[in-house]
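User:
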Amino acid sequence: MPIPVSLIIDDGAPLINVYWWHAAEHQKSDAPVLKSGEAVAKDVAPDFIRDFVGVIGRWGIRGKFSVLPYPAGLGKLATGWPGCDMRALKAWLNAVRSQVMPLMDITPEMLTHARTLDLDTLTLLDENERDWASHQTAATLTPYIATALRFLNEARLEATGVTSPWDFAREVEPEYQRAILAAMKEVNHCGRTWYFLHAVTTGTEFLSKVVLREGDDWLVSIVSQCPDFLWQTMDTRDETSDYVRSVADQYVTEDGRNGRLAELFGAGCPVVFHTHWQSMYSNGRRTGLRALDEVGRRIHAAWGEQVRWLKCSELAAEAADGRWEAIHAVSGG
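Assistant: Predicted structure:
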């Protein structure tokens, strides 16, 4: 049976670079910088979505694409925010609907991926979503997740699961799991769903699994099993082809024999890996996206019909059916 491959893409948002808000909060500065000393780009060029869909379309890359329902706390996805270029926003959303959704599931990455949104007033609380979630219950998490799903629906982007901003609700994960299933059933009438929270980047045992069952309904935790090697492209101005190939090598070498993805493939393990919108944008240079393009080409050339790209919802369904329970390779750590 061909081995599934799924790519998880986090932090997707139209026109803005949500990482700017993360860096600004962490550095306590309105002019955050990267490790290289370069200023963090606050915006993402509107045409980046065009380049992205070109890459995933070229290689049939499938998986998940996060879209922030209330990006960085600025305003609703469907109606924009002060200073937003509405024409560019509508074009971005149309591209996601027509060209991304056929290949990738959509998820919220909760509401803002920044400070927590007060659901009654639509004003921002002092705590960011990660800190707020750490002391919540299913009763408070459910309406928060449900609001994120509704805001996506208003933009005609129906989600099949959810993504956790940072390690959202990890401290209360059983409560979080019940909240996800309840919110998905309430808003999207979907009782078989999934979420992304965990990344375990060593070993070759398949880790995505059912974590909650309620009658015929289930919730699967999809686990990424590869680091985000594209992240490093934000911190260098090197745009050479040699550099791009060196980044791709960390995933899979030209012959398909080495690299983290090759390690998983060689063990017969479904290949789940993740990256970020800003990792591919590379502070405007798009070096990360070029490296992803090269990874897609190598997977196609080296493995061909031995693999099949799946949406995360499709992989979750196979995990729920016990398709991959027989994989118990020796863990590397």
